[in-house]
Amino acid sequence: MAVDDITPRATWDALRADPDAALIDVRTNAEWNFVGFPDLSEAGKEPLMISWQVFPSMQVNAAFVDHLRKAGLTPLNKLYFLCRSGARSLAAAQAAQAAGFAHSFNISDGFEGPPDAEGHRGQVAGWKAEGLAWRQR
Fold first, then answer.
1. pTM of the model as a whole
2. Domain range for 70
3. Per-residue CA distances from 25 to 88, 116, 117 (Å)
4. Where do the Rhodanese domain residues begin and end (predicted)?
5. In this structure, what CATH number is given to the domain that contains residue 45?
6. Tens of pLDDT, residue by residue, the chain (137 residues)
7. Number of compact structural domains in the chain
8. DSSP for residue 3
9. H-helix or E-strand spanning residue 69
């Protein structure tokens, strides 16, 4: 079974409509602190911060699926995975799906999306570029 990509806007709509939907931000602590993260307060939610790779080694977090379960998520939840540009989140969604979380989705273009012509992220595609709410710590 393949993991479906979903746009940031469609993710936002799903999070607002489904009380059991959750956004899992799989980036690192440094990214959450310095780049920002989705603000889901209007949907009455907080993103779950569970790194897919551990900084600074960037080795895959062997306890990732355990962290999903410890956060109270079940195979009935719809899970939306987010990273910088959509690559780590796809791997995380695939791991979740393989562990029995059938409703796992990859947020296409992630939080910042690809770089623009000048090498800056957050302008072309992704959560920030779509004008969705976000904040910094």
1. 0.96
2. 4-135
3. 10, 23, 26
4. 17-118
5. 3.40.250.10
6. 799 999 999 999 999 999 999 999 999 999 999 999 999 999 999 999 999 999 888 999 999 999 999 999 999 999 999 999 999 999 999 999 999 999 999 999 999 999 999 999 999 999 999 999 999 98
7. 1
8. P
9. helix 64-70
